[in-house]
Amino acid sequence: MANKKILIVDDDPDVLQGMHVRLKANRYDICLAVDTFSGVAEARRSEPDLILLDLGLPAGGGFLVMERLKMIPSLAIIPVIVVSARDGLGNQKRAFDAGAKAFLQKPVDDNQLLAVIRQALGEPAGTKKPTLYDQRAV
Amino acid sequence: MPKQPASNLSAYLSHELRNALACIHQFGNILVDGLAGELTGEQREYVSIMLENASRIRSVLDSALDGVPDPPEKCTTKI
Known about the structure:
The complex is a heterodimer of chains A (about 140) and B (about 80). Chain A has about 140 residues and is α/β, with parallel strands linked by helices. Chain A is built from 7 helices and 5 strands, in the order E-H-E-H-E-H-H-E-H-E-H-H. In chain A, about 45% of the residues lie in helices and about 15% in strands. In chain A, helix 5 links the parallel strand 4 and strand 5. In chain A, about 40% of the residues are buried. In chain B, helix 1 runs antiparallel to helix 2. Chain B is elongated and about 45 Å long. Residues about 65-75 of chain B have low confidence and may be disordered.
């Protein structure tokens, strides 16, 4: 069975790298984007199964990304999980109103992130995919 | 740090510190979980101490900038 593909959109290269390592270790295929335009463009190009989206992005922001995705039928159905350092009070409601499946405030616990991703992808909650280290140990 | 209006200062600090903490947690856990190779017991202990202290900073941040020690809605889903 093919790995699920996740697009991570964040303007912080360290956050991108850290999430990339963590999700790759859990056998997800990863694609990356660093701003609003490249986020939408990469979503069109790679048609991911799920998008992890920061809100504070150059050239528009995460809400604009969600707005653009909604205008493209094939992309409008992709579940979006907002992962942001912004205050959750107002942004959480706005994210849900814009169609986000979940709102996580940074710093995010890895297990929590993986659980929300699995839920959004419809994967069994208890599925524990091997890490890179587990694979080497086999 | 760019000059910020006083009303935006706490939001700015919260955003920047949370992003930095996210990276500390992310890469610390990557090390502890062995994703970059197995650590010795001593190395694992030191990284764990680092992570515990990052969590303390997060608690202070939550308390100082959000006004409550442990906000009830850190993660909400409607899946």
